[in-house]
Amino acid sequence: MPTTRPGDERRRAILQRALNVATLDGLEGITLGKLATELGMSKSGVQGLFGTKQDLQLEIVAAATHVFQERVLGVAERADDGLPRLRALADAWIDYLDTFEGGCFFCAVAPEFDDRDGPVRDAIAEVAHTSDRILRKQIRLAQRLGELADDVDADQLIFEIHAAVLQANYARRLLNRPDAYDRARRAIHDRLDRARPARR
Amino acid sequence: MPTTRPGDERRRAILQRALNVATLDGLEGITLGKLATELGMSKSGVQGLFGTKQDLQLEIVAAATHVFQERVLGVAERADDGLPRLRALADAWIDYLDTFEGGCFFCAVAPEFDDRDGPVRDAIAEVAHTSDRILRKQIRLAQRLGELADDVDADQLIFEIHAAVLQANYARRLLNRPDAYDRARRAIHDRLDRARPARR
DNA sequence: CCTAGAAGCGTACGATCGTACTTGTCAATG
DNA sequence: CATTGACAAGTACGATCGTACGCTTCTAGG
To answer: pLDDT of A76-111, one tens digit each?
Structure first.
């Protein structure tokens, strides 16, 4: 068995383009025909590699998840546990917002699927739950290390961190605010500073 | 001239349904045929009243803007200028998130159009700019009234308020968090408390 | 009473959608 | 060398999309 089958390169190229198209136009905005035309191949060629459209959507979400884990969770892992890791997560998360042409993939497709059922919605929500879990773990750790106050409401802190990231993507894209990322960083770091234990 | 032409009632019914569909499936997810079927009328009937699809989209955004102004800006106007008005704006804004079946209309359609050009995108962005202006005005007013500190960065405060609202809709819809609205209210009110002048 | 215009429906058109087939072409394996 | 299977292209199908046009019905204004 070769390390890469001949179709793998094509698949990667298709998924790469599909990730950008999905971030721009949504997962429903993706079309087998348009995708094939953009990549200079036939519509049935795309279909042969991915099967149905929902299969393609699921693979796109999986690919986006992989990118997110690499560019956010992976990068932040280099920082020390606890508060430094939390700050690194926030910074990497905001850096990730420029990964695709349309900004953040999950910010773009979440509103599209948040009121539906099915495996695509589940796959999208799973990423959100995963990042929540990781943030919660690091908050708990930071509390145990004395870097955050014991009475900090972890869920509230997670809520506000994620809010800043979401708004960063929103302000950057819809409102063309170049300072959106800086404001998000400031909001998060200020919030973390405030969550530190009272000096005694 | 009668107060209402005969087609007006139909138009309202169509727009009412279209607002919900757009919030669920996006402005591109709207279809003349589906809309007509749901309302028990003919496809050409809808087309005759609204013209092209883009015309319909523009009227939907206009209708959503009207609802937003009524349910958020209008409600908050009853509160006193300055800090009370700011708190009322936030509360009304969060209450408004349940207006349509899919939650917040603008949260649903903004990611869809934020990377495009054209009148629809402009109409969506205009609402965001308007609400920003109103928040800024009330922040300035609150500063002049001594309710907020003079060194408060208005744009940063606006950023964080809007972030909480956005995250409220996100957490409520995608993550099914029933406490999302309460967390957003807490985040905003805490943030406003922190922006008050230092006691002397 | 007559008439102009709006409302609404039916039909038709070309385009594009997702999906299911078939065909031809290589490369790797026995 | 023969053969199998993956890959890619081609073709076809029914459904649905947005839009255009024509017809009937109703109503308001002269």
So the answer is: 999 999 999 999 999 999 999 999 999 999 999 999
- The answer to whether A164 and A187 are in contact (CB under 8 A) is yes
- Residue to mutate among B166, B189, B192, B194, with most A CBs inside 10 A, is B166
CA B92, C1' C6: Å apart? 40
Q: Give per-residue pLDDT as tens, B28-75.
A: 999 999 999 999 999 999 999 999 999 999 999 999 999 999 999 999
C-beta separation of B148 from B196 below 8 A: yes
Residue A1, pLDDT above cutoff 60: no
Residues of A in contact with B115 (CB under 8 A): 24, 101-103, 173
CA separation for the pair A97, A111 (Å, rounded): 17
Ordered DSSP codes for B167-183: HHHHHHHTS--TTHHHH
Instruction: Answer yes or no: do A111 and B108 touch at CB < 8 A.
Output: yes
Residue written as tokens 């956010």? Answer: A72
